[in-house]
Amino acid sequence: MSTAKTCSAIAPTPVQLRASALLAGIENMLAALCAVLLGALLLIVLIAVILRYGFNTGLTGTEELAIWFYIALIAFGAPLAINAALAMRLDLLTARLTPAGQRITTIIADIFTLMSGLVLGFGSARIATLLGGISPALGLPEWIRFGFMGLGGVFILIVCALQRISENKIPDLLIAFLIAATLYSAVSHIHLDTDLHPSMILGIITFIGLLAAAPLPHAFLTGAYCAIAFGSTLPEPAVVSTTVSGLSKFLLLAIPFFLLAGNLLTAAGLAQKIIQFAASLVGHHRGGLAQTTLLTSVLFSGTSGSSVANAAFGAATFQPELVKHGYPPVQAGAIIAASSVLDNVIPPSIAFLILATATNLSVGALLVGGFFAGAIMAICLAVAIHLTVHNQIARPRAGGREKLQSAFSALPAFGLGIIVVAGIRMGIVTTTEAAALAAFYTLITAITGKVRLAALYDIFKQSGKEASAIGLLIGTAGPFAFLLAVDDISGTVSGLITGFTANPVMILIIINLVLLIAGLVLDIGAAILLFGPIFMPIAVAAGIDPIMFGIILVVNLMLGGLTPPAGMLIFVVSGITRLPATALFRAVIPYFIALLFSLVILCAWALFA
To answer: In angstroms, rounded to a whole number, what is the distance separating the alpha carbons of residues 19 and 12?
Structure first.
């Protein structure tokens, strides 16, 4: 995934300086809004939990108010992701082009970004004029939640323009805006006949955007709008409405809370306690420090739910220590990246939350299954580490007292996992409530751990921005999912597969091959939203348990984080350690094979257990 283009090497002009200053001011304002909205969301849900369980009462409209605030968080955070890693850009093609070619693809990418801003801005305005009614729970006009997204679209346009002006690329900006405005105006006035379904057109346009390194959510949104010219049943207001409706689910609020909990956990120093406990258990084995890295990932997975967060934490924490103890740098980085896969499998898992949203599967059942799958993956990785690591220094075997002390020190971190999994599985709290309690729990530990107010503010800003990027992806995939359902793509794919074979083993092999290929280029969130609704009915029809298939789907797609060209976990480790991504891709092969073997075990379990 690529980041913002480097600024011009020449001295900046006064116009560039003013644009840079204005851009920084707007981004600071939006980041502050994200922090405030995330704090307000946490407060709203916590108050609802306290009233419900402490006083057996509640406030009318708290759930809907939280959803509206969540939509606002996504809208105001969306412009911040345009020029950051959170944009989910794929630089498979652009990184290999000449400067002239890169300039062209940047203009194309900007066209997609500007189109998405126009669609969100004008589409939301049209909804505001068409939509009547008052929210019965809040007593507020219904158009307000769409107004948030409209403002987000306006800020996307402003941020994109200021970024290019600050880079002294005004001609390129004008070209991109002229093309985007022309396309935007023309789409609703033309009709093009084709034998392809509108959903296929959307997919093709999105793929073009990906090749040009456009942000993935912007590619989705532009594709959905352009599909109108090819007979799509979603006019512009419906595209925006479907996007917002896809976000209007209380379950999705768990995502920002889990991200916040993971970031607070690290800031509070509890992650170091987990490391000490893991080292006391496995540090004395051959490759003990590598095994400690793996076990820490297993334990850290029970708190963060984000593989990217784990990869960043591991690269910063373990890489220097592994190298210091004789591990080749690329092997150390590969072990860290491979171990990070576990975070989106072992609960709490953001990937499972997205899957539950896309397929209506039970979150609690998926989380329990995630423990089983994570254990198998961890064992396979432990064996691979044992076979590939030789002659590295191991620490002395820890005594019983040391193990007990380290376990006691790590108890606060383990309490987080208990709150989440036990609370959800036992039906004590909902998934979102459990995530809010987890975030509050880690906030208290951070405050008592003397984390400064400025650091807490930065954590809320960062967590809000990360949640916004994920939420925007979920929302903009909504129109694609709708058109896939209208065009009965699931039925078509099912017919093709079952026409080829009715054998459940072959069906599962074919699905896994498709998912492995998709994982090469797609972000896991997008891949879940696209393929979950398509393949789930096929798997169920073949007699495969839906929960088990959901676990297989997530495990399969997580392997894409380790594979070129878009392996996010490899690039995160590469960015922090400054190791070449190509070297890391080679070094991770033994651990990728181990995880692939764990996928085979899970598939065999689903078919024959």
So the answer is: 10
| Tens of pLDDT, residues 208-259 | 998 888 888 899 899 999 999 998 888 999 999 999 988 888 878 887 887 7
Measured CA distances, 148 to 156, 223, 284, 386, 603 (Å): 12, 22, 55, 52, 43
Sort 287 into a burial class: Cβ within 10 Å, 0-12 / 13-18 / 19+: buried
Closest of 92, 78, 66, 67 to residue 27, by C-alpha = 78
Say which residues have a Cβ less than 8 Å from residue 475's Cβ, sequence separation at least 6.
74, 217, 243, 244, 246, 247
pTM: 0.79
Q: Kindly list the domain boundaries of the chain, sorted by start residue.
A: 14-248, 253-451+487-608
Q: In 464-589, at which residue ranges do the beta strands (DSSP E only) sit?
A: none
Residue of 510 and 488 predicted with greater confidence: 510
- CB contact at 8 A, 232 and 196: no
CA–CA dist 348, 306 (Å, integer): 9
**533: cis peptide before it, omega within 30°?**
no
Q: Please state the separation of Cα 13 from the chain's center in Å.
A: 37
As a whole number of angstroms, the distance between CA 258 and CA 297 comes to 16
For residue 83, which phi and psi values (nearest 5 degrees)?
-115, 30
Beta bridge partners of 134: 141
Spatial contact of 332 and 318, defined as CB atoms under 8 Å apart:
yes
C-alpha Rg value of the chain to the nearest Å:
24
Write the CA distances from 445 to 38, 322, 343, 348, integer angstroms: 18, 29, 21, 19
165 — pLDDT class (breaks 50, 70, 90): very high
Count the neighbouring beta carbons within 10 Å of the beta carbon of residue 10. 8
Tokens coding 204: 């093709």
Over residues 462-490, the pLDDT tens digits come to 888 888 887 887 788 888 878 877 877 76
Q: Is 319 exposed, middle or buried (0-12, 13-18, 19+ CB in 10 A)?
A: buried
